[in-house]
Write the structure tokens for this entry.
Amino acid sequence: MSAAASTTARHILTYAQSWRGGGVERAQLRLMRDWVAAGRRVTLVIGDPSGPLAAELPDGVAVIATGSAEYPPMLTAVPRQAARLRPDLIFCPGNHYSSIAATIRLRLGATCPPIVAKVSNALIRPDQPFPVAWGYRQWLRLHPRFIAHVVAMTPAMANEAATAMGMPASRISVIANPPARAIPGAVMPALPEGRFLLGVGRLEPQKRWERLIEAMARIADPAIALVILGEGERRQALEAHIAALGLGDRISLPGNAADPLPAIARAALVALVSDFEGVPGVLCEALALGTPVVTTESTVAIREIVTAPRLGSIVPPGDAAALVAALDHWITPGRERPGPVPQPGDTASTDYLALFDRLAGAGINPAP
């Protein structure tokens, strides 16, 4: 039976490069767990099934490992599996993966099941140089040709998708990521005994952790420490930068944390200094635990998260002085912490399934 003939999305196919990722893959794992619990068949095509997040893979997900986490091989491996399995619906977990969705649509043609893609990162990128930005804009305008429906995590991101992609409003839904849950038995990373600032995220260029490291040399309290939880290609460069600034006794990079929530709860504040983001889950998690945040304005969603000055500070991405001032404000002894702010997304998994069923039942797919 074709995907178009299905009345529900009984079989959902999704994909990832590896479990070495960050927020996109963590949200994907939470969604898959709930979809399996709801009785759906879920197949994951993954390049490399190893990595720190592998332990969070829920029982019941059928895993197909392609043998390589590199992006070019994924462009052929995932469409091949989609053609073989003929799922009722395909879920693209983030815009980093949308070119794979395009190759699936090209390979399957009119028989392609609906593809739903989540917008996981900013679509309007002031950090890009002109030639790259122009090409990226042209690429985004092609998305309505192969994506059946876009999921944005906030209303502001939905507006950005409509503008950047030219996607009709009828083909955009707003569904927050499912909230983080504590992981029983997770090993706590090594944390300082005294007060510390916390960063959580991949050690990749996008995150610009060097901004936070440099700010540590200028903040008013020379005793406060910094912990950055995460792993990535910038580890050696960041370690060298820390050493060059003579901050090795105050800054630590303990690697990935299976459950960062206890560290977030203990931190004096959570800092995020990225050039661009989608809807940073770590900010929502921090505010849910009553931990203030300092963040660059890296996405249109930032002001939907940090809705009042009592929750934290928002600074321009390249303003080092503003970053130091914001950190100093929140580490001032006696500074009142914000009250907990509930995370959105409690109904995310069922909202996705309702959308999937509607699309699968109608056989909705974009024109090639």
The CA atoms of residues 342 and 349 lie 17 Å apart. Confidence is low (pLDDT under 50) at residues 1-5. Residues 23-37 form the longest helix (15 residues).
